[in-house]
Design brief:
Radius of gyration: 17 Å
Strand content: 25-35%
CATH superfamily of the largest domain: RlpA-like domain
CATH topology of the largest domain: Barwin-like endoglucanases
Distance between the termini: 26 Å
Helix content: 10-25%
Oligomer: single chain
Number of strands: 6
CATH class of the largest domain: Mainly Beta
């Protein structure tokens, strides 16, 4: 990362706009470059309140409302009247949170679930298996998250 930032100092400005250093396998680098260039994800956005859910809690199954396997730190339940199912959301406050595999979260979530209590500007973030999976999420201010629609997906969300 230090080399990447040092290289930025000597490159012409046009190189920054091409996102030359952040490839598809570097979502955190993409985010850093988008902040540097002012090219943040765009699309409809919402200020939302969030709750957390996990496998093992009452009423939580292994599949989302699309019939796909729920994915820890990726699946989000939404009110489909506000946010359509199959929407890819970028939630900036989740960038850097610890993922189940130990890597840093890139902020991307997949609206593939709904819930009876999810109405209006509320979302429910799936954290994984058991209540202990919510540990890394406790640092979030769940009363105020910013979500931006950055795309749509077909089939099931990626693992």
């Amino acid at each position: 990362m230090r080399r990447r930032l040092a290289a930025l100092a000597v490159l012409p400005i046009f190189a920054l706009s091409t996102n030359a250093f952040a490839g598809p396998s570097d979502p955190v680098g993409d985010l850093i470059m988008s902040v540097i260039t002012g090219d943040l994800p765009a699309g409809p956005g919402w200020n939302l309140k969030a709750t957390l859910y996990h496998a093992g809690a009452k009423g939580v199954g292994a599949l989302d409302s699309l019939g796909c396997k729920v994915v820890a730190m990726r699946t989000v339940a939404v009110d489909r009247n506000l946010i359509p199912k199959r929407t890819v959301l970028f939630i900036k406050e989740t960038v850097g949170l610890k993922m189940p595999d130990g890597t840093a979260h890139d902020g991307y979530w997949y609206a593939s679930d709904v819930g009876g209590g999810i109405k209006g500007k509320r979302i429910d973030l799936y954290t994984g298996a058991g209540s202990r999976s919510m540990g890394s999420m406790r640092a979030l201010n769940l009363a105020s998250l910013t979500a931006v629609k950055v795309g749509e997906f077909k089939g099931c969300p990626p693992n």
